[in-house]
């Protein structure tokens, strides 16, 4: 099967979001009623589901966003204190940590009231366990990004299994919990990769916006990329990028000015699959939802 190659090598794709009404749907179909939250000054979570570009939007509406998830439904959550001001939620993601840059990145995120999903490489989690724990302690969520960052579609099933399983073990041993989200290196995936992901109960997450920080994008360019995020979308950034670190305060300001809050990507039971139009001979299925995150919620993606 032809692997899906991420924008790093083929250019960015565009996706559309489909707005749906906020009606109650049974959990059996993967769309849950708004979940109760611990007592807080604001209301409970907002239910959304997605499908790739926002056509119309109204606050509190359930969005059907087609996300790059190989299996299951996802939710993005934000703290209740932010919920009243949130017209939507976005997923901030940082790949390739933990590293020597992780403490500075965590400080910047905390200082600017942001939470993010950290897709860690297993080899770095094993070498820097304290930083994995620091990510969790800072309120971030930890995902699996393979052990050595190979081109997974070029590997055998057993090799892919090793990449994923060793990273699950390294992150758990470091105190990061057992990841439920997986981002394949370079965004490259195929049926074999998805099969191994399913074996470990992982949901595949790609991205909607590529910051291009891996390609030397300037701080201004990274801020501009984040400004393209719409309700229900995720952005690709990296733990080690100095320009991304410098962009964090401005990203926070930009999101706030548009009524968007950073939230948690959280797997949900799989519902109906929604195939998009074929792209280069491949069909893609994604399903994705967004919620407000209760204080004290799990720090593991």
Task: Please specify the SSE layout and strand pairing.
Elements (H helix, E strand, L loop, with lengths): L6 H4 L7 E2 L28 E3 L12 E2 L8 E3 L4 H4 L4 E10 L4 H10 L5 E4 L1 H6 L1 H9 L3 E4 L12 H17 L7 E2 L8 H9 L3 E2 L4 E2 L8 H8 L7 E5 L3 H16 L2 E3 L3 E3 L19 E3 L11
Parallel strand pairs: 5-6, 5-11, 5-12, 6-7, 8-9, 10-11
Antiparallel strand pairs: 1-3, 2-14, 4-13
Helix pairs in contact: 6-7, 8-9
> Helices and strands: which structural class?
alpha/beta
Mean pLDDT: 73
Indicate the overall shape.
globular
Order of helices and strands: HEEEEHEHEHHEHEHEEHEHEEE
| Overall number of strands | 14
Figure out the total of helices: 9
Strand proportion, as a percent range, falls in 15-25%
Model regions low in confidence, pLDDT < 50 over at least 5 residues: 1-74, 78-84, 270-301
Largest sheet properties: 6 strands, parallel
What does this structure look like?
The longest helix has 17 residues, at 157-173. It is built from nine helices and 14 strands. Helix 6 runs parallel beside helix 7 (191-199) and helix 8 runs parallel beside helix 9. It has 301 residues and is of the alpha/beta class. It starts with 6 loop residues before the first helix and ends in an 11-residue tail after the last strand. The strands form five sheets. Strands 5, 6, 7, 10, 11 and 12 form a six-stranded parallel sheet that branches. Strands 1-3 form a two-stranded antiparallel sheet.
List the keywords.
301 residues; alpha/beta; six-stranded parallel sheet; two-stranded antiparallel sheet; 9 helices; 14 strands; disordered N terminus
């Amino acid at each position: 099967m032809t692997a899906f190659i991420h924008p790093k090598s083929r250019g960015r794709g565009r996706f559309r979001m489909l707005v749906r009404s906020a009606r109650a749907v049974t959990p059996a179909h993967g769309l849950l009623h708004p979940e109760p939250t611990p007592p807080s000054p604001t209301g409970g979570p907002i239910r959304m589901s997605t499908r790739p570009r926002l056509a119309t939007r109204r606050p509190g509406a359930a969005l059907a966003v087609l996300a790059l998830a190989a299996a299951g439904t996802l939710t993005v959550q934000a703290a209740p204190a932010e919920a009243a001001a949130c017209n939507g939620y976005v997923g901030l993601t940082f790949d390739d940590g933990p590293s020597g840059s992780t403490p500075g990145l965590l400080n910047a995120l905390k200082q600017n009231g942001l939470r993010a999903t950290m897709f860690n490489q297993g080899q770095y989690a094993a070498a820097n366990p304290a930083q994995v724990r620091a990510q969790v302690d800072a309120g971030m969520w930890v995902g699996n990004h393979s052990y050595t960052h190979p081109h997974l579609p070029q590997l055998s099933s057993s090799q892919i299994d090793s990449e994923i399983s060793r990273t699950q073990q390294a992150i758990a041993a470091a105190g990061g919990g057992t990841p439920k989200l997986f981002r394949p290196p370079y965004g490259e995936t195929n049926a074999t990769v998805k099969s191994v992901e399913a074996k470990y109960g992982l949901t595949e997450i790609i991205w909607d916006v590529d910051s291009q920080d891996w390609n030397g994008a300037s701080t201004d360019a990274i801020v501009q990329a984040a400004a393209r995020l719409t309700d229900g979308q995720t952005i690709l950034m990296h733990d080690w990028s100095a320009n991304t670190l410098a962009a964090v305060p401005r990203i926070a300001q930009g999101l706030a000015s548009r009524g968007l809050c950073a939230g948690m990507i959280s797997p949900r039971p799989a519902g109906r699959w929604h195939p998009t139009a074929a792209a280069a001979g491949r069909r893609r299925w994604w399903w994705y939802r967004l919620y407000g995150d209760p204080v004290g919620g799990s720090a593991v993606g």
